[in-house]
Structure formats: C-alpha cells, structure tokens
Amino acid sequence: MNIDIRKTIVTSIIMLLATIIIHFVPGLFLIIAPFLLIPAVTLYYHSKESYYVMSFVILIAVIFASIFTMQIMLSVIFGGYIVGQLLKEKASKERILYILTVFYTVFSLIAIIILQMAGVIPKMADIFAPATDAYYNLLMAEVEKGTVTKTYADLFLTSMDALVLQIPGLLILFLFILSLIQISITFPFVRKFKVSTPNFRPLYMWRIPKVVLYLYFLTLFIALFITDTDVVLLGIVTNFKYVLEWVIFIQGLSLFSFFIKVKRTHPVLNILIYIFAFIFSPVTQIFGMIDMILNLKSNIKRK
Fold this sequence. Notes:
Number of domains: 2
Shape: globular
Largest sheet: none
C-alpha cells in the first residue's frame, strides 16, 4: 500500500479542525466550505490509499459531531473523491463543475428527506405554515371587513405555496454557486502541489452529455406513476428533476452563447438575450433539449 504518512496526518488534522469548527460554530461553514476541497483533492490525487485512511478517521470523528457537521464533512469526503478522480481522468473543468453540483444537490436533497422523515428537521411547508397562517388570518379578517377580496386572499396563499415549491430550485442554485466557488479556489491552490488541473472552456463550447436528457425523460416517466402518498419517492424524483432541469438550462445558455459568438451580435442584444434566458428559463431548457438532440450549434452559420 502506498500510504504517505506525513500527508495523511497533515490532511487528517486539517479536516478534523474543520469538523470541530463547524460543530461548534456552524455559521463558519460558509467561510470554510470553499476551501475544504483543497486538502482533500490534493491527498486523493497523490495517494488514494492515504485518502481512504484520512476518510476513515473523519468518518469516526463525525459520529460524535452534530448531524449538520456530519452532512458537511461527508459531502466534502465524497466531493474530494469525485473531483480527485475526475482530475486523474483529465476531465474538463465544466464537466467537473456540473458533476460536483449534481452530487451536492442529490446528496443534500436525500439528506433533507431522510432528516425530515426522522423528525430531526421540519418539512418546508411546516416551516412556512405559521407565517402563512398568520398572514392568511389577517387577510381573512380584512375580507370580513370588506377591505380585501376573497380572491386576493386565495391568491396570496397560492403565491406562498409556489414560493415553497421554489425552495429546491434555490437550493440547487446555491449549490451550483458553491461548486463554482470551490473549483475556482481549489484548482489554483492544488496546482502548487503538483496537481494537474484543466481550465474552463468558454460557455459556448460547453456540451452536456446526452445521458442527462435520457435521465430527465426517465424521471418524467417515473413521476407519472407516483402518488402523493409515496412521500419519499415523490420527493426524490421531484428534486432530481429540478437538478436535471438546471443542467439542461446550462446547455440552453451554452447555445445562446454560441449564437452570440458566431453572429457577433451587439452587446445590448447580448444582454437582452441573457435576461430573456433567465426570466424565461423553461424556454431556455427547451432550447437546451433540442440542442442536445439535434445539435443546433452545427446549424448556426457564421456571420
């Protein structure tokens, strides 16, 4: 076995210190998290065996930590493994980005569902229920006074329900940004430790694997046979669909970026195109799907 004792001990100490800090001051997670992949990826890249030893040490340590700390450190351990392996395979930077984002998202959503089932954390609807009920009762009181219509009160409640449904999407956006920050910070640092890292290709050159589209269609098909009583499966499928939609959205952005690059459109028009892409994200996703199927980029002629 090729175990580097010194690197294993140093990395284990760093990860243990991070575990202790997050356990006692959870809020510092936002500051520490972007840097945690640096020691993990460096160790895995140079010695898998050393990484496994370090991971075992951290797994033992997090048993005695809070559930939140456990989730964070487990995600770092698996995330370091994924990024390190992809670097060994000479994967592109954008591929590493969306694979890491998908992993973080699936890991987080499944963890949330399990914790909700165990009663450790409340459901999102339960978190917002007190505020929603309070505002709704106030509105109903105004309805009785005649100052507010019943339609307006019902519209407010519907809007609150829609807001709750958007939370998984906002979580995915946060995890995408976190992954982007982690990679942007990690790669320059690990290069100093003789780790070969790729550079980002321009957005217009990005190409999402077609298997993502197949998984999306499979998810939609499975969703047809799930009832509201299948809470766990419904939560997993719904949230996984959110993940895939964001990935397909990126392909749509890549298509628009390619169009802008090839046609050399005016900067004002470029801004309007991106604003349109984000405001009408379902349309962008449709363009992303079509591009993944028909390769629309090949049909865009240079100006």
